[in-house]
Design a protein that fits this description.
Elements lengths: L8 E4 L2 E4 L2 H5 L6 E5 L7 H9 L3 E5 L6 H4 L1 H13 L1
Length: about 80
């Protein structure tokens, strides 16, 4: 998955599905990605893809994979801010 961020695959029910920008357009304004800055799987390509495709996202400091357990206050704040918009 290194290199071209459009080749990013998403785990979905135990199989991989290639990201298709046209499918993302339908939900882009309905979702926000919260990512931990210490996450071992989220690579720079994922963040580049989110920025390139203009997905709303937020990097939470001091969190890894268990972002909601590691930084619950920050996740709570960002979720309510997103839902209030």
């Amino acid at each position: 998955m290194e290199g071209d961020p459009l080749m990013l695959a998403v785990t979905y029910f135990s199989f991989l599905v290639k990201y298709e920008p046209s499918q993302g357009e339908r939900v882009k304004d309905k979702i926000m990605f919260l990512l931990g800055d210490h996450h071992q799987v989220v690579k720079k390509d994922m963040i580049r893809l989110l920025e390139q495709e203009q997905y709303l996202h937020k990097i939470i400091s001091g969190a890894g994979h268990g972002i909601n357990h590691e930084q619950p206050e920050a996740v709570h704040h960002e979720m309510f801010r997103f839902l209030a918009e």
